[in-house]
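Lab notebook, design round three. We kept the backbone fixed and only want residue identities now. Task for the bench partner: fill in a sequence for the structure below.
Input structure tokens:
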């Protein structure tokens, strides 16, 4: 329980139950960038590219719908006071629906739906895990003072509806990367158009930038899978595997290999991200004749969307194409 002690300008609070505090602060990270940039690449490199593509596809869809819904509805976050808001970066964003709840629900249940026909494990255990993860993230949004119960329920219901409506088309979407040589063009132009024409706000919030980051990463992953298929850089992951009777036991060797692949991949991704971001910003600053040190310039539509989009599209392509190539060069199966 959090008790406000000073509500004049900066709210102070006393933590009376550290178990709940750290549980829900950790649970909140399962819907943040730190989780996406670790869990999704780890799934791609160490578990199943087919699964990672499904996860990214649904994650991008629900996050874009959720972010746009926030910007259109413009429902405020819970008033502070009386609640204590523990996350200051996103406090300027609107509340309905909770995109944390949407992302957690989407990833948990997409993981369950995709793996239950590919791997043999107790379905009840998988269902309980999906419910537990999504519930913890939903409760964390209320505990941290960032959302109301209605925000969270709205996010869960919207996500459930999107999964039900899109599930029949998942296999078709999986195969689009081999449909046409022009597919990468559409995979870049359409997402960029959606980001550039994001609903305008009365004042600046990080919503548009965060949405562009997510959509661009999804576009990069899509193009990366197309590159893999077109140039036959890796085995085709679109066709479901037969049910695996016995999942390999977790050994020390597997853990070391997985961590090594993950470390190599993350280092390359961070290098690519930093290089492309700096380069794209310099080009845009020069094109629009903006002073480089002007931090506010990054928030301009014509600068923020292109540099974010180019940067994270490059990250998506790198994660799905160049990192696996580097793994093979280094002899990491």
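Proposed sequence:
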């Amino acid at each position: 329980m959090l008790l406000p002690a000073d509500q004049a300008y900066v709210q102070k609070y006393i933590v009376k139950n550290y178990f709940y505090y750290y549980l829900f602060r950790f649970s909140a990270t399962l819907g943040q960038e730190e989780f996406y940039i670790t869990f999704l690449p780890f799934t791609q490199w160490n578990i199943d590219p087919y699964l990672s593509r499904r996860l990214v596809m649904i994650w991008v869809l629900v996050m874009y719908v959720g972010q746009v819904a926030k910007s259109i509805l413009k429902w405020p976050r819970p008033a502070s006071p009386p609640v204590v808001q523990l996350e200051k970066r996103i406090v300027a964003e609107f509340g309905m629906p909770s995109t944390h709840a949407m992302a957690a629900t989407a990833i948990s249940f997409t993981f369950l739906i995709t793996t239950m026909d590919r791997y043999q494990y107790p379905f009840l255990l998988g269902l309980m895990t999906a419910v537990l993860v999504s519930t913890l993230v939903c409760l964390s949004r209320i505990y941290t003072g960032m959302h109301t119960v209605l925000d969270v329920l709205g996010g869960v219901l919207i996500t459930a509806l999107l999964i039900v409506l899109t599930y029949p088309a998942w296999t078709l979407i999986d195969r689009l990367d081999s449909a046409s040589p022009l597919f990468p063009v559409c995979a870049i132009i359409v997402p960029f158009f959606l980001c550039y024409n994001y609903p305008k706000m009365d004042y600046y919030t990080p919503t548009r930038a965060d949405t562009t980051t997510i959509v661009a990463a999804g576009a990069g992953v899509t193009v990366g899978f197309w590159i893999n298929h077109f140039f036959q850089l890796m085995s085709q992951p679109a066709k479901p595997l037969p049910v695996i009777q016995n999942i390999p036991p977790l050994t020390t060797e597997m853990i070391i290999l997985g961590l090594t692949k993950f470390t190599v991949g993350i280092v390359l991704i961070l290098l690519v991200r930093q290089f492309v971001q700096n380069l794209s910003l310099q080009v845009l600053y020069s094109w629009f004749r903006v002073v480089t040190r002007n931090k506010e310039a990054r928030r301009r539509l014509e600068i923020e969307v292109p540099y974010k989009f180019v940067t994270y599209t490059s990250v998506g392509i790198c994660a799905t194409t160049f990192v696996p190539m580097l793994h093979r060069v280094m002899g990491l199966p």
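Keep this in mind before ordering anything: Residues 2-238+246-329 form one domain.
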